[in-house]
Structures are given as C-alpha cells and as structure tokens.
What we know:
Blueprint: H1 13-38, H2 54-76, E1 83-88, E2 94-100, H3 127-142, H4 154-166, H5 177-182, E3 185-189, E4 194-200
Antiparallel strand pairs: 1-2, 2-3, 3-4
Amino acid sequence: MALRLPSLPKLTSRKAVVIALLVISPFAVAGLAAKGAHDSSARPGNAAPGGAAPAVQLKAKDAAAQTEAQATAAAAATPQCLYARVVPIGKTGWGIPMPSLWNSPSTTCNLMYGDDPFRGSNHRGDPDTAIRVLQRNLNYCYGYRLTVDGIYGSNTRGVIKAVQKRHKLVADGIYGPKTRSAMNWRLYATKTNTWSKNCSSPL
C-alpha cells in the first residue's frame, strides 16, 4: 500500500526566499563567528583600518620595559650610595654635598626605587642621609616638592626621570654616576657655612 503524503501549500517565490533565509541564516552567522575567531585581523592589538597601530605601540612599550630592566640590572652591579659628603670644587672654597659610598671619598654609587633606605640585607652606612641630600637638591635646583623622607619611592624616581630627560639621559629613574655628573647642584662653603643661591653642574 502506497503512502499518501499530505499536499503542501503552494509557495510563492517570495515566501520560498524568506523560508530559505530563515533556515540558512543561523548557519551563516555561526560560520562568520567562527571565521572571526580565527581571523588575526579581528584580534585585539591589531590595527583597525585607518586607525593607529597598537602592535607597534606594544613593541615600543616592550622595548622601553626591556631597556629599563637592563638599566636596573646594570645598576645592581653599582654599589648603593650609603652616605653623603661634600665634594670640593677645585680651590674655590665651594663644594657639592652629594651621595657617596660609606667610608670612602667616592661618589660612584647609585640610588634606585625601593631604597628605603637600605637595599638588600647589608645594613651598613647611612643611605637615609644620601637620599635626603638628593631629595633636598632636587627640590631646590629643579623646583620640585618632594617629601625629604630618605625613601627612594615612586615620587623620587619620577623626579629623577624628569631630570634625566631634561639633561638628555636615558630616563631609567636611577640616580647614578651619569645623572650625578649631568644634574645641577647647590654649592656649599664649609668654611663660611653658607649655601649658594644658584645651582650649577660643575662636575
């Protein structure tokens, strides 16, 4: 016995197109979504048409972070400034109070973020004095208003970066020999116990 199928209503061509679209559209949307998930041009960080190039910006940020990390690693090899002393300027009677090594006339040392005041487990010397001398000088010669607290925190690092940029040095935020020699200092006369009104970089 043959099966009889119910007769389907006649569809106009317009109705047929609408039904076809309703059936096909979910698959089309899913296909487009899958394509977008695998399309590298749609991923965050890639340049939009006519827009900036975030990938290039990310590379620049990575390079800056790498340079700062290298500077920090190099600075770790230089000893921390553990005191401050007056460095004489020739036979003028003037000198510069600046961070120095402990029990040494050398000023080849550095201060960096996190020195509060000591760095590491070695607690010899008086880095608090070294940091305070630097902070006072930055305030007087560069017009900043750092809290003179003997802590090399984010504010002190930020000011050192600004000073380094001003003197066209690598702005790594680490006070070291290059920054010392480039920056301006207020002079002090030990015999008369007087300070200079102006700042200069006589090194």
